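A favour between colleagues. Tell me how you read the following sequence-structure pair.

===
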Amino acid sequence: MANPLRSEVVRLYKNLLYLGREYPKGGDYFRDRLRAAFTKNKSVQDPEQIKAMIARGEYVARELEALYYLRKYRAMKKRYYEE
């Protein structure tokens, strides 16, 4: 893997690992799936493919953040606006 992309991949992995701690099915489940996904693609050498995978990983990170935000919002709404 090219050195400039390696740092981006490591940063993405750490970010996803951090976000996965609050995953609804559990942090261990998320960590195992994350490790499997990164291990499956570790032999990819094409920089364009790597950039595409990084973009997909960043999309997943944004989706996780949205999931957590909505979960917290629903919990607060449930506490303060009982119906």
